[in-house]
UniProtKB/TrEMBL annotation:
<feature type="domain" description="Bromo">
    <location>
        <begin position="543"/>
        <end position="613"/>
    </location>
</feature>
<dbReference type="GO" id="GO:0006338">
    <property type="term" value="P:chromatin remodeling"/>
</dbReference>
<feature type="domain" description="Bromo">
    <location>
        <begin position="99"/>
        <end position="169"/>
    </location>
</feature>
<feature type="domain" description="BAH">
    <location>
        <begin position="823"/>
        <end position="941"/>
    </location>
</feature>
<feature type="region of interest" description="Disordered">
    <location>
        <begin position="60"/>
        <end position="82"/>
    </location>
</feature>
<dbReference type="InterPro" id="IPR018359">
    <property type="entry name" value="Bromodomain_CS"/>
</dbReference>
<keyword id="KW-0804">Transcription</keyword>
<keyword id="KW-0805">Transcription regulation</keyword>
<feature type="compositionally biased region" description="Acidic residues">
    <location>
        <begin position="63"/>
        <end position="73"/>
    </location>
</feature>
<feature type="region of interest" description="Disordered">
    <location>
        <begin position="355"/>
        <end position="390"/>
    </location>
</feature>
<dbReference type="InterPro" id="IPR043151">
    <property type="entry name" value="BAH_sf"/>
</dbReference>
<keyword id="KW-0103">Bromodomain</keyword>
<feature type="domain" description="Bromo">
    <location>
        <begin position="406"/>
        <end position="476"/>
    </location>
</feature>
<keyword id="KW-0539">Nucleus</keyword>
<dbReference type="GO" id="GO:0003677">
    <property type="term" value="F:DNA binding"/>
</dbReference>
<feature type="domain" description="BAH">
    <location>
        <begin position="1012"/>
        <end position="1128"/>
    </location>
</feature>
<keyword id="KW-0156">Chromatin regulator</keyword>
Length: 1283
């Protein structure tokens, strides 16, 4: 590992330094291991292999540089006959195609160690076609059979790593078959002819490279020549798609400038431009973006190249130099990046000179590149159409999917995004909304660069649906079905065609369980995992001792076979590291779980007083503290349920009060006149919309059903005080229906908020309204009958007083118009009339009849329209600007009293039209009629006034609907907010009959005691003396006897009241159901709480319970067994309808509770540290051979680490059982008895070098015998001494 690190850091200046380190490594191994061990022999073989490989490479490098001419003289044919045969076999594999696809492409290079680390953990002998080609050129293969073994190994590796049935698995079998067929053909043909045929074919093909030369092209040129010729090579971690793309545009000078910088390597083969691939992280280097005003990276330049933003070589040259100058400005001259910049700038200048010289020789190089690109336009267009047709087929599969049985189209809810008005919270929860219409538009507009981009949008849409909607809902299930349909359709279409712009074939070589696209840089999750792992691994105590050394590897089964009997899930840090490299941890908790399991295993197997036990506890604490620092403490993100309930109630209240009809009239305006005090029940608490508004603003409602009761009380009061045909009655019914509809939408019919309020539906409302009408209609009929009789009498009386005047009226001369003082008046016009009293505004009258009497005087008869100040109304009522009301008052008046003309318009026309040739102050609006007798308003449904000759024209801008307060409304300064009291649900004591109940006891389901409401199923704090925290009890029975209240139920205990390992972790606020059931007086209750099951704790909360009083219980503590066992769920209670149930709020997404360390952890660590504080380092080393500074890689662990090398075969020696000295007296006794029993059973047939454990057991037994009263062991002990 250290040599590999030096290679990565470029610390080796020449091969001799590398050779010295390898020699030291192998000499150390040979010094430590004995000559007969396999480790010693392996070290010798590896050193010989290194020397042989080094000589081959060094000699070949000198040979290639200095003796090219000699090579041609020694081998004029270019290759021996055997090499030609091997080359022909390799060429058969390399050139074989199937349906136009090159089979060998995935086998030419090994997978990237960065992207696929598990490949090298599974495959012990990796090999590729490039290595085979190199071995052919080096003359490594002595025969065809020798090469056949490597081909078989290549096929075996591919079939081992990839799943049966995969494309790579099939291709591996094809390669083996092709190789065998070609080998068989060559065996039955003449070798000379075959060799001649190979050479002739190569010469005929001109510049075409042989299969061997093609495979060896990588690394064949020097660094400077590669730059000048535009040849660029890629390492394992780079994308093959980029390599293919670069080969397509290789003749473009702009591309050559880019690749000259990007592909340049140093002597060790590392890319010099790697730090410039992407811009620095804003999180890690925030000052970079303050110092650098125009940051540039190679990724930015490559994106501009794809978009054809560079028109000349000068532009990309300027961009690259800007990138280099930024790096030189930010980094110090002595840094590695600064030195790389100088090299890259020099290389860029060389490449620019080379391109300039080439352009002078061939001036139309850019033109030829352009023509070359144009020649492939037809092929690209065909690929583009194929890609687009595939995406259309995938889209159609989703759009046409239907539900089995019903035929319902599943995609209906996914066609368009939800309305922002109806679902405003959707766009707060979903940050990247997408719908099928958008995807269809993107497909048609060719906005997807690949099929994967379209698939990613589809997956995003389905993820959004599952994230926003509850699990089990229709949309949630439809998303799962549609995603399955999409996958099946894509599988049916088969793999995408070989298109460089779609996907690289190399991505298919990996197992389906591992993502083929992995970034070279660590994701935020990987960074957290590494920090956690390194914090545990590198932790040292005050003495500099690394505690994690003993946990790096598991003990061997040969050394400790009983370890694997006691520990069911063994794990070590090497296994954890391999899981991290394979990306098997989906979150931080998964890593923490494995590390905690490792520490639990150590504490379970080792004694509580041992050093390993103490180290496990310390590292466990380090792990939890590091995670808390990384994640910022408690990250459960439990929603504030009280605030959410208040927001829901506020939204519901605002929606109801703002509900309008088609003309923009608020229904709640008419209800503003409802008095707060009910005239029929004056003792009842005053209540109206203003009082409810004050309570909502102050957050006094904690339950939806209480708020609903208050709203319904106001609406029912309005219907009770007014006639069934009144506007207020109809408005109250409409508002109550609207309330129920909006309530159900906000609560999602109980999916978000489960409340008793949801039990009242529109069916109940219609039933209640019908009952009210049945009660009120008979009375209203009687009132109408009396009213008609009174009107009839008044009419008869007026006729009698008129006398003969009525006869004269019959001789009136009626007309449709008349003139007075140069003004002409028509029937249907509105006029101002002189007021009956001085200092009053003119009356507004609508002319319905005009006539002239016998004296020649003109008269009019019409309807009076009242202004708001001429009506009787509550001061809280609001009116439209310029509003008047049609009254029930009609009278005649001389035309001579007319003061002028005006216009009264119906509300439906007023805001859109205006009368021609009238001043705005003479135009009024009418929406309701006013009854002077009942002093009530009623909305006009149909405008029946006489037709007017006034011409109306559209307004340039429609008038806004503005309502103003009454002139009788009190001034704002003197207004006092109503007193608001804390509101709770009205409850009553609910008794219950209990069979086999004790005499003299009255049992209750719901009871109020000492101003505290309790019900069966509630959990309460029980005052407990001598405990850190109060215990929790659940009320299962509740009764009152002799004036005192009692309850009975099980007891929940806290973690500190249980016996457990200090490494055990608990959820915050976790309790355990115990076997205790107690009867307690109600007076010992210290408060109420809620104990939720694990499922409920993650998904919901009672609305009235503070979060700190919500506890979690998922296990039962069995006192006898000292164990915690999980159960399915807590007991649920079915109560009568009179009992007020809790309201439950369900979270949109499940919370993730964190676990916290045991309360015993710190205490146990302090005890053990005090015990080992006085020990010296040598004594600690005696306790644990591998503890210390961890520098000795071969030190023996105590009980956790695996024995290496031939240490497994060493003879049993006293120092290796020093851990036995740490055993307690009873454990020594037990172990001694076991050893003696073993010895007696086998008649002491133990070899001489294994007698020490037996002697140690006899000594321990003798100590026990002398210091205790274990006389029953005396015969056993004497028998052992005799033997």
């Amino acid at each position: 590992m250290k040599i590999q690190q030096k290679l990565k850091m470029e610390e080796y200046d020449d091969v001799e330094q590398l050779t010295a380190d390898f020699q030291l490594l192998f000499n150390n191994a040979k010094t430590y291991y004995k000559p007969e061990t396999p480790e010693y022999r392996a070290a010798c073989k590896l050193w010989d292999l290194y020397i042989r490989t080094k000589n081959e490479f060094v000699q070949r490098g000198d040979y290639d540089e200095d003796d090219d001419d000699d090579d041609s003289q020694e081998n004029p044919g270019g290759a021996t006959e055997e090499e030609e045969v091997l080359g022909q076999l390799l060429e058969a594999v390399l050139t074989y195609t199937e349906h136009g696809r090159l089979i060998s492409e995935l086998f030419q290079r090994l997978p990237s160690k960065v992207q696929y680390p598990d490949y090298y953990a599974i495959i012990k002998e990796p090999i590729d076609l490039k290595a085979i080609a190199q071995r052919i050129q080096m003359g490594f293969y002595k025969s065809v059979n020798h090469m056949t073994k490597d081909i078989d190994l290549l096929v075996k590796n591919a079939k081992t790593y990839n799943e049966p049935g995969s494309q790579v698995f099939k291709d591996a079998n094809t390669i083996k078959k092709i190789f065998a067929q070609r080998k068989l053909e060559l065996e039955h043909s003449e070798p000379i002819k075959s060799s001649i045929r190979i050479r002739n074919r190569r010469f005929a093909q001109g510049d075409r490279l042989s299969s061997i030369t093609t495979a060896l092209q990588y690394g064949s040129e020097s660094e400077e020549d590669a730059i000048l010729t535009g040849s660029v090579h890629y390492d394992e971690g780079e994308s093959e798609a980029e390599s293919i793309h670069s080969s397509m545009d290789m003749s473009n000078p702009i591309f050559q400038m880019y690749e000259a910088v990007r592909g340049c390597r140093n002597n060790q083969g590392h890319l010099l431009a790697e730090p410039f691939f992407q811009l620095p992280s804003r999180k890690d280097y925030p000052d970079y973006f303050h110092q650098i005003s125009h940051p540039v990276s190679l990724q930015t330049i490559r994106s501009k190249m794809k978009n054809n933003e560079y028109e000349s070589v000068e532009q990309i040259d300027t961009e690259l130099n800007l990138m280099f100058e930024n790096a030189k400005r930010y980094n110090v001259p002595s840094s590695q990046i600064y030195k790389r910049v100088l090299k890259l700038q020099h290389i860029l200048q060389m490449k620019r000179k080379e391109l300039t010289r080439r352009d002078d020789e061939d001036g139309d190089s850019m033109l030829s590149s352009t023509l070359s690109d144009g020649g492939s336009t037809k092929r690209k267009s065909h690929k583009k159409n194929t890609k687009k047709n595939r995406m259309k087929a995938l889209y159609a599969a989703v759009a046409e999917a239907r539900e089995m049985g019903t035929g319902r189209r599943l995609c209906d809810l996914f066609m368009v995004k939800p309305s922002k008005k109806d679902y405003p919270d959707y766009y707060k929860i979903i940050l990247e909304p997408v719908d099928l219409r958008t995807i269809d538009h993107n497909i048609r507009a060719d906005r997807y660069t690949s099929e994967d981009a379209m698939m990613e949008d589809m997956r995003l849409m389905f993820r959004n649906a599952r994230h926003y909607n509850e699990e089990g809902s229709q949309v949630y299930n439809d998303a799962n079905i549609l995603e399955k349909v999409l996958k099946e359709k894509r599988r049916e279409l088969g793999p995408p065609p070989d298109d460089d712009d779609i996907i690289s074939p190399k991505l298919k070589i990996r197992k389906s369980g591992i993502s083929p696209k992995k970034s070279k840089y660590l994701t935020p999750l990987q960074q957290k995992l590494n920090e956690l792992y390194e914090a545990v691994k590198n932790y040292t105590d005050k003495r500099g001792r690394r505690l994690s050394t003993i946990f790096l590897r598991l003990p061997s089964r040969a050394e400790l076979p009983d370890y694997y009997l006691a520990i069911k899930k063994p794990v070590d840090m090497e296994k954890v590291k391999s899981h991290m490299l394979a990306n098997k941890y989906q979150d931080v908790d998964a890593l923490v779980e494995d590390l905690v399991l490792m520490f639990n295993n150590a504490c379970t197997y080792n004694e509580p007083e041992s050093l390993i036990y103490k180290d496990a506890l310390v590292l466990h604490k380090v792990l939890l503290e590091t995670r808390r620092d990384l994640e910022g403490g408690d990250d459960t993100n439990v929603p504030d349920v009280a605030r959410l309930i208040q927001e829901l109630i506020r939204n519901l209240f605002v929606s109801v009060l703002g509900h309008q009809d088609d003309e923009g009239r608020c229904y709640s305006d008419s209800l503003a006149e409802i008095p707060a005090v009910d005239p029929n029940n004056p003792d009842k608490t005053p209540l109206n919309f203003e009082i409810i508004r004050a309570k909502v603003d102050k957050g006094r409602y904690r339950r939806l059903d209480v708020f609903q009761d208050h709203m319904f009380e106001v609406l029912e009061k309005a219907r009770c005080l007014h006639r069934t045909d009144s506007e207020i009655f109809e408005d109250s019914v409409e508002l109550q229906q609207f309330f129920i509809r909006i309530r159900d939408e906000l609560c999602k019919n109980g999916e978000i908020l489960l409340s008793p309020a949801l039990s009242y539906t529109t069916k109940h409302l219609h039933s209640d309204v019908e009952k009210e009408k049945k009660e009120k209609l008979p009375k209203e009929y009687e009132e109408d009958k009396l009213k008609r009789e009174e009107e009839k009498k008044e009419a008869e009386k007026s006729e009698d007083t008129a006398g003969g005047g009525w006869q004269g009226a019959l001789q009136r001369n009626y007309s449709q118009d008349c003139s007075f003082k140069d003004n002409k008046y028509h029937v249907g016009e509105y006029v101002y009339v002189e007021p009956t009293e001085p200092n009053l505004q003119p009356h507004i009258v609508c002319i319905e009849r005009l006539w002239q009497d016998d004296a020649g005087e003109n008269w009019l008869y019409g309807c009076w329209f009242y202004r708001p100040n001429e009506t009787f109304h509550l001061a809280t009522r609001k009116f439209l600007e310029k509003e008047v009301f049609k009254s029930d008052y009609y009278n005649k008046i001389p035309v001579s009293k007319i003061l002028g003309k005006c216009v009264v318009m119906f509300v439906k026309e007023y805001f859109k039209l205006q009368p021609d040739s009238f001043r705005p102050e003479d135009v009024f609006v009418c929406e309701s009629r006013y009854s002077a007798k009942t002093k009530s308003f009623k909305k006009i449904k149909m405008w029946t006034m006489p037709l007017s000759s006034v011409k109306f024209v559209p307004r340039e801008v429609p008038l806004p609907v503005v309502r103003v307060a009454s002139m009788f409304a009190p001034k704002q300064e003197s207004e006092k907010p109503p007193e608001v009291a804390e509101d709770g649900k009205e409850r009553e004591d609910v008794t219950i009959e209990v069979s086999n109940g004790e005499p003299g006891c009255q049992y209750y389901e719901q009871l109020c005691y000492n101003d505290m409401w309790l019900k069966v199923g509630d959990c309460v704090y029980i005052r407990s003396h001598g405990l850190v925290r109060n215990r929790v009890g659940r009320i299962e029975k509740m009764w009152v006897r002799d004036g005192a209240a009692y309850f009975f139920g099980p007891i929940f205990i806290h973690p500190e009241e249980t016996e457990h390992e200090p490494t055990k972790m608990f959820y915050k606020k976790e309790v355990f159901l115990s076997n205790l059931e107690e009867t307690c007086p109600v007076t010992c209750i210290g408060g109420k709480c809620t104990v939720s099951s694990f499922k409920d704790f993650l998904s919901c909360r009672p609305t009235e319970m503070p979060e700190e009083d919500v506890l979690l219980c998922e296990s039962r503590y069995i006192e006898i067994e000292k164990q915690m066992k999980k159960f399915k769920g807590l007991k649920r209670f079915s109560l009568s309808a009179k009992v007020v149930e809790d309201e439950i709020y369900y979270f949109r997404s499940l919370i993730v509770p964190q676990k916290e360390p045991s309360p015993l952890l710190d205490k146990k660590i302090e005890e053990l540290e005090a015990k080992f504080a006085d020990m010296t380092d040598e004594e600690l080393e005696d306790l644990g051979d591998d503890d210390g500074d961890g520098s000795d890689a071969h030190c023996m662990p105590q009980l956790q680490t695996q024995l290496t090398g031939d240490m497994d075969m060493l003879h049993y020696a006293p120092p290796q059982v020093s851990s036995m000295l740490l055993l307690k007296e009873n454990h020594c006794l037990t172990l001694s008895c076991h050893l003696l029993s073993f010895a007696v059973y086998h008649e002491f047939r133990l070899p001489g070098n294994h007698l020490w454990p037996l002697m140690h057991a006899i000594q321990c037994l003798q100590v026990v015998h002398e210091t205790s009263n274990c006389f029953y062991l005396l015969p056993f002990f004497q028998r052992g001494q005799q033997r």
